[in-house]
Structure formats: C-alpha cells, structure tokens
Amino acid sequence: MTPTLHEDLQLQVRDLEIAVVSGAERKPVVKGISFDIRRNETVCLVGESGCGKSVTALAVMGLLQTPPMRIVGGEILLRAGEEVFDLARLDPRGRAFRRLRGAAVSMIFQEPMTSLNPVHRNGAQIVEVIRRHTGLGRRAAWQRMLEMLRLVGIPSPEVRARQYPHELSGGMRQRVMIALALACRPGLLLADEPTTALDVTTQAQILTQIRELSRSSRTSTLFITHDLGVVAQIADRVHVMYLGEVVESGPVREIFHRPRHPYTRGLLASVPSIESEPFSRLTPIRGTVADLPENPAACPFEPRCESGFGLCRGRTPPLFEVSTSHRSKCWLEQEGRP
Amino acid sequence: MSTTASDPVLEIDRLSVRFPVKHGLFGLGRREVHAVEDFSLTIRRGETIGIVGESGCGKSTLARTIMGLNTPAAGSLRFRPQDRSLGPEGLDLAKASSADWKKVRRKVQIVFQDPFSSLSPKQKVGSIVAEPLIVQGPSFCRDPQARAVDLLERVGLSRRDFDRYPHEFSGGQRQRIMIARAIALDPEVLIADEAVSALDVSIRLQIITLLDELKEVLGLTLIFISHDLGVVRVVSDRIAIMYLGRLAEVGANREVFAAPRHPYTRMLLASTPIPDPDRRPAEAPAFGELPSPIDPPPGCVFHPRCGLADATCRQIVPPPVEVAPGHRARCHHTGAAV
Q1: Do the beta carbons of residue A59 and residue A169 sit within 8 Å?
Q2: Which of A118, B159, B190, B239 lies most in the core, judged by the most C-beta atoms within 10 Å?
Q3: Longest dimension (CA), chain B
Q4: Vertex A157, ends A151 and A163: CA angle to 5°?
Q5: Average confidence (pLDDT) per 10 residues, chain A, 338 residues
C-alpha cells in the first residue's frame, strides 16, 4: 500500500520511536513523537542535549547510526514531487533512499568543517550533487553551482569555488553547506544547530539567509536548536522536546507569549537575554535531565517541576489540546483537576 | 556595589600579546598574530567585569596572560597596584619571576569552558579538589580532605561525591567541581573563561547564579569572559567589548547596553537574537567578515566593517575617548548620531 499524505504537508512524522538496541535490551531515545511540516513552513525542534532532537532529524535523513540505534516504530512520510515515501520503512543504504537524499531532503550540520570534504574543492562538491541528481552536464552544473554560491551571499564565487574548505572562514563554509543542501531544490531542509558554532554577527546573517532562501525556493525547514533566541527569529511553529518526547507544540507566538508546559515556561524564564535586567534573578530550572521520577510511569519532568501535584507522580500525562493549534503534555491542562 | 575606582585589583596597561606564526614556503616566513594589542583596563576589587567579543578577539589570550600562561610582548599587568609589599606599583605579572609568582599564583584562578577536558579522568573528585590544598602545604590547610568536602558542599555537590570519578558527572556538575577547585585557595580574582558556554540552557543559569553567589560570599573579583551578550548582561557590573585584540568599548553594564558608543558594540547588539518572535530583524544585516589578526587593517581595525568609516579611520588608530564618566570607546566617531 502506498502511503498517503495530506496535500498541504511536506513531512509527517507519526508515533516515531527510536531506541538504542543492544542484544535484548532496548533503551528508548525517541518515545513516540508526532509532528508535521507544511509546505514552505519552518518548524523548530527545541530542547536540551539528549532530548532526541538531532536523532529525529538523522532518522528523517536516513543517517541514524544502525546499530546500535534503530527505528522501532512509527512512520516518517515525506513528499518527493508527486510521490510519498515512508522513510521509516525504506532501507537507508538502498537506491531509493539515495535518490531522495540530497534531492528531496537535505541536511546542514553544526560543524561545516566536518561536513565538507577537505580534499575536494568547494565548487566540485556542489557540482557532484547537482550532476548526480539532475543529470545536468558539467558546464550547466558548474553554472548552477555558481548561481547557488551567489545566492547564499558568497562574494566572488568563481574564486571561492576553486578553493578548498580550509581556505574559508566558518561562516563562509556554512554558506557553502547551505548552497550544497539547496542546490537540488529539496522540498525539505533539515538544519541541525547550523549557527551554534558561529559568531553572533555571522549567525544573524546565516539565519536571515536560511529564512529568505527557504521562502524563495519553496523549501520547508526542520530547524533544530537549543537556543530560544534563534527559535524566536526563525520558527513558524515550535515543538519543545524533553527526554525523547514532545511536551509542548504550537505556533511560535503562542509558545513565547502563552507557554503552557512548566518546562517551556522554565526554559523561557531562564534565558539570559540582552534585554534582561542586570542581576535580575532569572529563575533556573532545578535539577538536571538525569533526575528521573521514582515511578517510571510518572511524568518524566515531575522531579524538576514547580507545579507538580499528586497525579503527576502516578501517571504520565497525554498531550492535551490547549487550542486547535496548541498542545501541552501536562496534567495542568486537565479540566476539573484538584 | 561597594566598589570604587580607587581600589584596583589589577591594572592592565597597554598590554600586547603576540604569537609567531609560520607561513609561506616550508613555513620559512615568520609573522606575528597580534592576539592582544594596546589593551588597557583597570579591574576593581569586588566587581564582576564582563569581557565580550567574537572568536579570535583575544579574550581568552587575555585571560591566559593574566594567569601567567602567556608572556606579553609589551605593556604591564599590575596586580594589587597599591600594595607596596609586592612592589612600588604592586606586582607586574608581565615581569614577575617564578618566586614572585609563587606569592600570587593562588590569588588568581580560572575556570575553563570545557569541563570534560579539564578534569583528569583517573582522579577522584575529592582528590581533584584537595590537590591544590595539599600542594600549598599544612601551613595553608591542616586538613585538606575535610576542606575539600566543605568546598564540594559549597558548590552544591555532596559528601558522597568525594569518592566518585569525573565521568560519573554531567557537564554542569563537572563545572561545579572545577569551581570548587578554583576557589579552594581563597583567590582574589576568579576568571570564568566561557565557563557556561558548553552547558545546557537550564544548567547555564544555575552555574551563573552559583558564581555570582560565591563572588558575594567570598568577596571575589570576577572576570567573566563570554561571547554571549545575554549572559554578560545578567552578571556584570561593567562590560568591556573586544575586537581583534583591541578594547573597543568599556563602561557600566546599563550604559553600554542602553547607549553603546562604538559601532562594533551596536553591531553585536543588533545581531544578538532576542527571544521574542514579534521582533525579528526586517532584512539581512550586512556585517562583513572578521579580518585576519596576522594582517590587521591599518588605522581603526574595525573600519572595513564600519558604516561610519572615513579617511581618518583608515589611517589613524583611534585613542580611547571618555564619552561619559567611566565609559570609554576607541572610535573617532563616538559623537555620531545612531
């Protein structure tokens, strides 16, 4: 049976479960998350290290390290032209996936130096991707590559194309990565902390660039970051992750102006910003992600939660609907609670 | 704040630090990186001074030079300039002999960015914290073990952690161990060199709060080095902005943020993302790229990226201009309207 996808959607992830499997033991890393990305939309996965956000993106890209990690449940439906693929069931090493990777879905990473090949010239790396997926000739692919470099704001692209990655600054390298990722006009771009290693002035330029390019080339973006300032700058919708689960999702304004989940509120209250008052006692979230509840069935955030009550220690809450577009995985949303 | 300009703990005067680099054929050519150049700053007893700048601006070189880990090419670093027992103008760390260093080394301590590489994996936590006490000998501390337990408790760890190894701790906890060790010898000055940059958002604020509390309780002078303006905003009394090894601007926290007088400070502020989705920058900022510190531009080093640059800026290095009491900026156009 061919999978189907609503026509507005570029990607739909349903009940995705990823686990580290060793022998008979299964340690869940992503615990049944669901989200979708509409066409031309930028969706942010935000959370702290170990929450499963990068693993989710790697699973979409078919780059999960298997073994030990494995998709153990759920679907990843991706639109590629007229077709829809369930990436969770596609062999990541197979021909079908190879044809999608780089063409229908591509990815940029935190560290551009480790994602570019140091022994190939910048231009050649982009030309290779273009030729592989489009069948353009050498000359046409070279032209397309130059056009991409120009588009991402690289001055004198003819010169830069003939240089090697180590001859570029970090910001320039990340631009080359973006040009590479967008060269075949993918429907979906996965961006995993693409500005975290960059300086703020470079970050500001790269963020605006990603926003404008995905708008003009009609690309949907899944943007992964731990930085709430960046989320506010780039997201249309946001999913907040905690320990492998989505605990709150909604439109970016809802998340920042009317956060519901105690974890989201805690995060927002603990971010020092240039507009914070000096010495304002921002409130840290207590404890660490390693603080797990005694009862494995309890809400995983309960040990760190400021608003927990009896119910939280007994059962993990479902995703409650706050409004049609806003959801929170917290017992506080339940009507008639004590 | 009870600090006064008349009680300086460290007077940095026209400090320059240069490193030789090889270049050209077989690395036969010799040139110099001007990591810190003509840098002057007086640090007052009991204050928290934030030092901000992008990668390569020389902020970590400055920290290492204060620690005696680099030898300056020019200038002086006068420790306790009013303490005649150390010398006519305190002790100049730039010229201090190893005998001099023995007297003051324990007075200046540092916490580095990466708590994973700065702790020995084979040493138990108790021994890591007790080690500096043992080195100082029984005249300094009679019972290093007991004192180490006190220190662990002071930074929010417990007696039980004494016999554990660093790998059993999270990043935030390791940073607490580093802080315990750094304050073990009752330092006067504590340098935090990007000490919270590698930590998750929810942990970052816990460590900032801890440093701030320790500063108050122990009467420390805190030199807080970071690339993150938000973090510096929250903790600092005064802020110094560095660019390409030079001091760009220094002043009281509120003043630098409310009325920045150096164009580079304004650029940094404009590119720092604000966690509010209603305030996205309208268009791509054109900030240019950081020049090489081997070949810094003539005149004002910021002129190639500056909107206000004119012929004077291209030729003459701007002197520090006192724009308000205690607020200096090295710019020819400090009076320019924004």
Answers
A1: no
A2: B239
A3: 65
A4: 130
A5: 84 95 89 93 92 94 90 94 91 92 91 86 94 91 92 87 89 89 92 87 86 86 94 95 95 96 93 86 81 87 90 92 94 76
Reference B277, options A46, A84, A291; nearest CA is: A46
* pLDDT tens digits, one per residue of A268-321: 998 889 988 887 778 888 888 877 888 888 999 999 998 888 889 999 999 999
Q: What is chain B's length?
A: 338
Q: Answer yes or no: are the C-beta atoms of B244 and A246 closer than 8 Å.
A: no
Measure Cα distances from B208 to A283, B190, B268 in Å. Answer: 11, 13, 22
Find chain A residues with C-beta within 8 A of B270's C-beta: 204
Q: How far apart are CA A251 and CA B138, in angstroms?
A: 62
Shortest alpha-carbon distance between residue B203 and chain A (Å): 7
Nearest to B306 by CA among B284, B336, B328: B336
> Cis omega (within 30 of 0) on the bond before A272?
no
Structure tokens at A259: 């956060």
- Pairs across A and B, CB distance < 8 A: 145
Nearest to B338 by CA among B286, B281, B265: B265
Q: How far is C-alpha A276 from the geometric centre of its chain's CA atoms?
A: 27
Reading phi first (left if > 0) and then psi (alpha if -120 to 50, else beta), residue A84 is in beta
CB of B325 less than 8 A from some CB of A = no
pLDDT tens column, B58-90: 999 999 999 999 999 999 999 999 888 888 888
Give contacts of B271 with chain A, Cβ < 8 Å. 200-201, 203-205
CA distance B94 to chain A (A): 31
Q: What are phi and psi of A220, to 5 degrees?
A: -85, 150
Q: Does B254 touch chain A (CB under 8 A)?
A: yes
Chain A residue with minimal CA distance to B292?
A169
- Structural domains of chain A in order of their starting residue, each with its CATH number: 1-104+186-257 (3.40.50.300), 112-185 (no CATH), 261-273+281-333 (no CATH)
Chain B nearest-CA distance from A334, in A, is 26
B266 touches chain A (CB under 8 A): no
Q: Is B198 on the interface with A (CB under 8 A)?
A: no
- Which residue bears the tokens 């992600």? A289
Q: Is B257 on the interface with A (CB under 8 A)?
A: yes
B161, B289, B305, best to mutate vs chain A, most A CBs in 10 Å? B289
Q: Are β-strands A326-328 and A245-251 bridged in parallel, bridged antiparallel, or unpaired? A: antiparallel
Tokens for B333? 């156009």
Angle between helices A122-134 and A170-182 (to 10 degrees): 10
Instruction: Enter the CATH code of domain B8-122+165-273+288-329.
Output: 3.40.50.300
Chain B 214-233, residues with CB within 8 Å of chain A CB atoms: 227-231, 233
- Return all residues near B148 (Cβ < 8 A) that are at least 6 apart: B126, B129, B130, B133, B162, B180, B184
Nearest to B205 among A48, A208, A282 (CB): A282
Segment B315-330 shows an average pLDDT of 94
Strand partners, B39: B15
Spell out which residues of chain A touch residue B233, defining contact as CB-CB under 8 Å.
272-276, 278
Paired tokens of A164:
């090697």
